[in-house]
């Protein structure tokens, strides 16, 4: 195991001791970070979504900002704005909270379209445009956006173009009783100032080096063919399963293929392998595809979810 992989695995193990019962979320956030992407996390309040990204930021030598999205938020509240300086009679651009390495966009679906589009430019282009000038964002830049699946009053659905910009759409559920006991023990320990020992902080250079190292993970032609066919199957599901013909309106774009390729390599790398297996594809395929498949009205009326479609395609597309 390489030195950088040991650091990433140590980071993952530490986060799992702090984010109890959300091992899948921890792993998917690290995959998103190493894939140079962004994550959309959906879950009820109190499931440690904020703590997860905050803990990740604490373990990496980076800057971190939290943006609480509300209906009255303005684009300039995120990107920054020009301030008039009376002493020299000039305008100066004051950078907003988006100028950081790790960003928590809390309850992103509570902001109107203009604010969402401002964040979209930052996510897609890694820059902010203001007053005809472009300001570059840091090379290490990751947005973790959250949304509450329960309360929909006063929310604005994210457009498909912005959803497609997220590498992963991660859904998390409530913990069971055994996990709940562990959470209580952790909270009591923190209340007594028993602060967990954070491992040696990972530098930005370490993250960039890890991104290069995962590219050496081998993917055979058979696995690559399997990966591509899964994505293509979302566009032509009738080829694999006749009952899906009227359920899928639009399938995933080529961006999904690129995202799936990155995520599967990183998953294999984290697991200590230098090759990709079909199990690596299946481990991340739901998070990559669930927000890139648009269901028909018939499917929505029948209560069919995108996860149901992915599950059917996994059964229909033959393994290599």
Q: What does this protein look like?
A:
This protein is an alpha/beta fold and 320 residues long. It has two domains: 3-191, P-loop containing nucleotide triphosphate hydrolases (Rossmann fold, 3-Layer(aba) Sandwich), CATH 3.40.50; 217-316, Helicase, Ruva Protein, domain 3. Helix content is 46%, strand content 15%. The protein contains 13 helices and eleven strands. It has helices spanning 3-18, 23-34, 49-59, 75-79, 113-125, 160-163, 177-191, 204-213, 221-235, 254-270, 278-289, 297-301, 306-316; strands at residues 39-42, 64-68, 80-85, 90-95, 102-106, 127-130, 133-136, 142-147, 168-171, 248-250, 294-295. The protein has a five-stranded parallel sheet. A two-stranded antiparallel sheet has the order 3-4. Strand 6 (127-130) and strand 7 form a beta hairpin.
Report how far apart the termini are: 27 Å
H-E string: HHEHEHEEEHEEEHEHHHEHHEHH
Supply the number of helical segments. Answer: 13
Shape category: globular
Q: Please identify the structural class as seen in this structure.
A: alpha/beta
- What do we call the CATH topology of the largest domain? Rossmann fold
Q: How are the strands of the largest sheet arranged?
A: 2-5-8-1-9
CATH superfamily of the largest domain: P-loop containing nucleotide triphosphate hydrolases
The total strand number stands at 11
- Which architecture of the largest domain does the CATH hierarchy give at level 2? 3-Layer(aba) Sandwich
Question: How many domains make up the coordinates?
Answer: 2
């Amino acid at each position: 195991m390489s030195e950088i992989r040991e650091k990433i695995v140590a980071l993952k193990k530490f986060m799992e001791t702090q984010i109890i019962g959300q091992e899948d979320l921890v792993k998917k956030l690290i995959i998103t970070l190493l894939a140079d992407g962004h994550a959309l996390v959906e879950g009820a309040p109190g499931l440690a979504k904020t703590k997860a990204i905050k803990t990740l930021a604490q373990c990496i030598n980076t800057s971190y900002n939290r943006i609480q999205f509300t209906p009255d938020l303005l684009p300039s509240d995120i990107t920054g704005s020009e301030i008039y300086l009376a002493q020299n009679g000039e305008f100066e651009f004051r950078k907003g909270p988006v100028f950081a390495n790790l960003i928590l966009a809390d309850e992103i679906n509570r902001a109107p379209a203009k604010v969402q589009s401002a964040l979209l430019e930052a996510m897609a282009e890694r820059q902010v445009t203001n007053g005809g000038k472009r300001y570059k964002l840091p090379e290490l830049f990751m947005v973790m956006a959250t949304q509450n699946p329960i309360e929909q009053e006063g929310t604005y659905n994210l457009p498909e173009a912005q959803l497609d910009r997220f590498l992963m759409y991660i859904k998390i559920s409530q913990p069971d009783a055994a996990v709940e006991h562990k959470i209580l023990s952790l909270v009591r320990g923190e209340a007594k100032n028993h602060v967990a020992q954070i491992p040696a902080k990972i530098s930005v250079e370490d993250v960039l080096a890890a991104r290069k190292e995962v590219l050496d993970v081998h993917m055979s032609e058979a696995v690559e063919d399997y990966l591509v066919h899964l994505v293509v199957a979302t566009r032509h599901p009738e080829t694999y399963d006749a009952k899906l013909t009227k359920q899928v309106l639009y399938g995933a774009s080529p961006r999904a293929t690129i995202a799936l390729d990155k995520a599967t390599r990183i998953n294999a790398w984290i697991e200590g392998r230098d090759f990709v297996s079909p199990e690596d594809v299946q481990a991340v395929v739901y998070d990559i595809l669930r927000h890139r498949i648009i269901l028909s009205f018939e499917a929505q009326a029948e209560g069919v979810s995108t996860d149901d479609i992915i599950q059917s395609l996994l059964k229909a597309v033959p393994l290599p």
